[in-house]
Amino acid sequence: MRTALVIGTGLIGTSAALALTARGVAVHLADHDPEQARTAAALGAGTDGAPDGPVDLAIVAAPPALVADVLADAMGRGVARGYIDVASVKGGPRRELEARGLDLAAYIGTHPMSGREKSGPLAATADLFEGRPWVLTPTRDTDTEVLNLALELVSHCRAVPVVMDADAHDRAVALVSHMPHLVSSMVAARLEHAEEAAVRLCGQGIRDVTRIAASDPRMWIDILSANPGPVADLLTDVAADLEETVRALRALQSADEDKRREGGTGIAEVLRRGNAGQVRVPGKHGSAPRAYETVAVLIDDQPGQLARIFADAGRAGVNVEDVRIEHATGQQAGLVQLMVEPRAAAVLTAALKERGWAIRQ
């Protein structure tokens, strides 16, 4: 791949353009908002000038509802040898293109499983996709050259290619992305009119659950409008679980001992199923989840504190597998939780204590 055209310079499009430009690909940028394309160009993502002729690959980074229109226009103008889109829904756009009678040999639907709560070119980064799955949905009609161009794009972005059927992909993202986003928003909505005294008690648990609820509602309306059926099916199942859980909690309020016992059993079953599902979430580098030990360190809210901790861990020969920060409400302090291999926990604890860090059990 020597040349590419990115149509849509939001977070995903600009991030892909930055990654391609860094690998020596000449990238042209286009957007319905010329100012946004100019912003992406100023960030080093390419040029907002039109290419002289057909490029090797056109990357359509438009909302799901607009993908078919943008692709049909680009294919009609012959702007590239190959065409892909990066929308989060795959079945619908392809069926729309088929209904228009387009030859889809030069097209493959893709979806990089990566993003941020922020949108737009200013949120973009060349390493956004690094180590993340990038779904490709070829069919028997897909030209081998186009598939190879898509794989080259994934490689340049340092992502991990995953080949799936388009409709299977849509059901999968409904489960692991679209439905969780709505549930997160529903939990966060409980806080909108909550008493201030209650909100001040928010800890890391509620922050984890509601983090993705901060995303742009307009973007998510587009996504959910393109995949409503699978998401609705999953929420129906969640609603049934909620009804069972409410009944179990009400039973725990009963004066009848048998009902309380039944309620406790119901709650225990919900928690057990949650444990069973959570352990299936892939761990580091997509591997099976591993059990780490946590070393908790109290830090001041001062510049350089995290860098010092990681440097001290490195001097002790300990690799930090994951990290979480729990901020103390109303205080200039926080708790850094360093996840390490169990055999390394004692070594790290001793090393950090020796260097003056306050360890919390």
TrEMBL record:
InterPro entries: 6-PGluconate_DH-like_C_sf, ACT-like_dom_sf, ACT_dom, NAD(P)-bd_dom_sf, PDH_C, PDH_N, Preph/Arog_dehydrog, Prephen_DH. Keywords: Amino-acid biosynthesis, Aromatic amino acid biosynthesis, NAD, Oxidoreductase, Signal, Tyrosine biosynthesis. The keyword NAD applies. Coiled coil: none annotated. Its EC number is 1.3.1.12. Residues 2-283 form the Prephenate/arogenate dehydrogenase domain. Residues 294-361 form the ACT domain. It catalyses: prephenate + NAD(+) = 3-(4-hydroxyphenyl)pyruvate + CO2 + NADH. GO terms for molecular function: prephenate dehydrogenase (NAD+) activity. This is Prephenate dehydrogenase. It comes from Streptomyces ardesiacus.
